[in-house]
Write a structure and sequence with these properties.
The chain is an alpha+beta fold and 432 residues long. Helices cover 32% and strands 24% of the residues. It folds into 4 domains: 3-111, no CATH class; 116-177, RNA-binding S4 domain (Structural Genomics Hypothetical 15.5 Kd Protein In mrcA-pckA Intergenic Region, Chain A); 182-268, Pseudouridine synthase (2-Layer Sandwich); 270-432, Pseudouridine synthase. The chain starts with a helix and ends with a helix.
Length: 432
Amino acid sequence: MNFKNIIRIILPFCIFLSILLYSGRADSVLLFTIEYTLASMAIFLIKRKFISNILWGIYLSILGVQAASLFSSGQYLMPLALSNAAEVESLGIGEVIKVFSIFILFVIIIRMKVATIIDLIVDSDVHTQSINHIIKQQHISHRMRRRLRSDGIITVNGKPAAWNTLIHGGDHLIMKLTPEQEFSLSPMELDIIYEDEYILVINKAAGILMHPTSTVRDHTLANGVLHYYQETNQHYDFHPVHRLDKDTSGIVIIAKTSVVQHAFDKKHTHFYKSYDAIVEGYLPSMRISINWPIGRKPGSIIERCCTNQGKPARTDIAVISKHTSKISYCNNNPADTVNNSNICPANSSLLAYNHFTHVQCVLHTGRTHQIRVHLSQLGYPLAGDDLYGGHLESIQRQALHAARVSFYHPITNEWLELHAEMPEDMNVLLND
């Protein structure tokens, strides 16, 4: 906190304290001091200056109203009072409630995880020193320096730099450290395709979320990976390089530190991705290149659609094989099939045939639901994709699997070609 902010805090405190004493309300001094200390600390801990200034203005306005009340009538006006403080000799329950509310706000803000940013101009009298040496001079704790070294994103004059980079007087140094993650640990059987000290590549099962949400806190991929790190004595966080939908299976690349994740972004790493997909119907045996822009569907926060107002999207499709799957229906209750019940009375079942095409999809762009939207628009929705026209009779999720990915490792520059076998629920559609 700089000198200007200290003055902004101390001056109103001294003024209001003087008014309290002048009005003969020495009984309020202790409670007001607690309230003011907690409120000012909570507000100035907020990193967004705009929000902090607004809250500070509101709080000082409340104090101004209270000060006017003290001057005019000697009463300590309580904005939240359940009973008028003038009617009782005590402080009034309203002030107690106000202090308690501010305390809760203080605890919440204290527990909020924010990014740590060190932004400084190197002193002009510095000739040549390492970033390590400069940071030691900033009176930063040993633990924070260790985190900055392993997980910090460093730039000098806007260019990427390392911990031992030499810098000079006048250089602009920025170090950013993302907040430590606080996910619970959930044991999970991970299908690890590749791992080194920088990245972890997993074949994600269908039905697993990438990371916790406001409603689902446990048993996501993030929870499972962090549990794996703990079990293997690895001190890393969860930094996914890309994401898959909950019901899409296949390859997920996870950077072990924010530095590695940043390296993927900085180098604009190009991923050569291909997906195994099973569509409903017999798709013509020809290579198809779909170049339909994709945007948000009007009135929906989830669905996408092909629209001229969307972003460019290209998917290349190649037919691998065509298959026919048998499905049993009941004469008396066709809905039994949808409910996965194929138990019918004797002589009351019918056989129906579903036609599927196994296709390989290559992505040239990365729009949300790109493959699902393109294939649905083409008239061949994914099996099980009921959001975009598919049906659930044969499979209970969209039949989409991230099967192959190739890329240059951002740290080692090694060329990696990774493959994940198609899961059993999709293979069943191709083996009937």
